[in-house]
Amino acid sequence: MTDLILHHYPMSPFSEKVRVMLGYTQQPWLSALTREMPPRPLMEQLAGGYRKIPVAQIGADIFCDSRTIAAEIAARSGRPELALENCSAEVQAYVAKVDLDVFFACILAGGSKKLNQKVRQTMSWLDIARFFWDRINMGRKASVKIVGLREARPKALEHIAQVEQRLQQDFLFGPQPNHADFSTYHSLWFIRDLGESRMINSFPKTIAWMDRMKAFGHGMCREIDPQQALEIAKNATPRPIAAEHRTDPLIGKKVRIAPADYGQVPSEGTLAGSTPAQWILAREVKGLGTLHVHFPKPGFMLTPV
Question: N or C: which end of the chain has fewer CB within 10 A?
C-alpha cells in the first residue's frame, strides 16, 4: 500500500486532527512540511488554488480538507467510524459546529504569551506579520460570521463544559473514538498544548480524555523533502474511478470547486468523478501529468466554468 503523504505544518490544528488520527490507526505516513500561509508554490501544483492545510496525497490523488483525508484513513485502516459520512446525524451535526464556530472561538481564546513565544521561534517577524494579515483578510472575505474576540473565551468555555458533561464514557459518543473526538481534540490541543492555557484545568474528565487522545501519538511517520512529493505524483497515475461515480451530467466539463465558508479560492479542472460524499477534479499539470483532486461536498461549492 502506497504511504499517505501529509502536507502540513507543526502548529496547524487541523493537521493535528489528522496526525492523531494517523497515530490512532498506526498507519505509516510521510511528512512534507509546508509554509503557514500562501504562497505555497508546491501546493499550488498539487491542489490548484485550494489554500487550506492540511492536504494529503496518495500517489497522483490529492485530498483537500480534513474530512476527505479522514475518509481515506478510515478506508485504509478498516475503521469506518473515522469517516464523518459513516457517523450518525447527531455526530455529523456536532462536528459541523465544532469544526467551524467552536474552532474559531478556541483559536481566539487560546492566544497566550507561551503561544507567542512558540510562534516567534518558528517564524520570522515578517512572516508573522504576513500570517496575521493573511488570516485577517481570510476572515473578512468569509461567507460565515466568525466569532468576535470578546465572545471567544465565553464560547470556548461553554464548549469545554459541554464536552465535560458529554464524557460519560472514555470518548465523546461511546467507548471508542469516532470522527467527533478528533474534531474536538484539535482545537482544545491548541488551547492546552500549544497555548499552555489553564482554561481546561477545572474540567477533569476533559483533561483525562485529552490525555487519552494525546497518547495515540502521531504513528509511524517519516519526514520527506516536499519536492519528493512532486516526484511521487509525477511517477504515479490517479486511481480508477468506478463507473457509478461517473454519471453526474457535469462529468467531463470544466468546473471550479472552492470552500463555501472561508479561504474561498477555487481549484479549476475537469470533473472526473462524483460520489455521494466527494467531487473528484482532474487537473492537467505541466511536468506532473494528470492529478485527481478530491473535495468533500459538504462545505464546498462547485460551479461550471
Answer: N
